[in-house]
Predict the 3D structure of the following.
Amino acid sequence: MLGPLGSIAAISAGHELFRQGDPADAWYRVASGVLRSCRLLSDGRRQIDSFILPGDYVGFESGRAYSSVAEAITPATVVRYSRARIDQSASEDPALGRLLLAIMLNHLGAVRGRLLQLGRMTAEERVASFLLEMLERSPREDIVDVPMSRNDIADYLALTIETVSRTLSMFKRDAIIALPDRQHVAVLDRKALDRLDRRD
Amino acid sequence: MLGPLGSIAAISAGHELFRQGDPADAWYRVASGVLRSCRLLSDGRRQIDSFILPGDYVGFESGRAYSSVAEAITPATVVRYSRARIDQSASEDPALGRLLLAIMLNHLGAVRGRLLQLGRMTAEERVASFLLEMLERSPREDIVDVPMSRNDIADYLALTIETVSRTLSMFKRDAIIALPDRQHVAVLDRKALDRLDRRD
DNA sequence: CGAAACCTTGAGCATGTTCAAAAATCGTGG
DNA sequence: CCACGATTTTTGAACATGCTCAAGGTTTCG
């Protein structure tokens, strides 16, 4: 938490918090709702960098412009931290600087984990590790909240929507999960998922 | 550059600067030589996060232990910055904090670009963007230094060694590059490479 | 010069994609 | 509450990209 330096904004589902190319003059912390942060290739191929859940930050940029789009998947509220104000406060309060650094290091670790996921895991393993990741962040211990579409999951895991759907169906057939509705996955066999997520 | 806070160390080719699990009590800046930073899956699959060239930093960690291995590809010298000393200096000098933040943001942007590369680019596009990336960092404008093995390139691009080799041979057949020796790639048709690297 | 490591090339194969269609779900208005 | 169309998801079959396995060539280094 960055303290009382922010202002609050609401975004409705499907709308953009910022776009690729916009001046990157603020960071955001999600208070409620879920967003996605994506990059695009010129021919439309899309890669979702991260899903941004309550408590997460988004909008860290090294250049002057955002290099990704941030869009709300569900209605969301965010706290906006102007970069100028943060910079100024950080130069007065070293503790804030340390906090920012810690947030950044956390991010970096997460994105590096994704390299392994996208580069070296099979479809099965990617879906399993995605479910485990979302499970960690869900309120209940056995039900995963999945507010994003299959398409979003596909673009997050660098698969096609068909492969995601087929893999989930397979997990269901093997009684590893149940699919009560679109937005939820019930984990029936956590150990099976753990076995598929071969990170050390 | 982090100033006069570091001590110098030399590593010979093939040796480790730190391993997965070692206490992460220092960051490093490469003065000369090339290193690689990798993560492993339990069954041996490997993903190289980044090649670390002179001027680059390595060893940023959010937890107590390194989550990747850093190994020298060529003989290298590095400057070691103890985390404790950096932390202390940063709490006295806000400019240092800002510098660290800038370095971190740079890293983050680079790794995010890799997500797109690994997730959504074809083998051809990955090799092309790798060559362009290395070309930017080579002293000459038309010759790429490639100190790493084909195997390392494969694990960096999440391909197999055979696919890397075949793709390079194809570029050679199409007169996009020449391969004077193992360690060098001569770029004959830069535009053809640019066309393959479809980032906006 | 010889052995070891590395790189290239080829042929067959597998995982995940593409294309197509059916099924389920959602939103809207009567 | 149900009917309707639109959208999303699931399923199937054929296909393609990149992988695996295998062999031959090249470079490196003692």
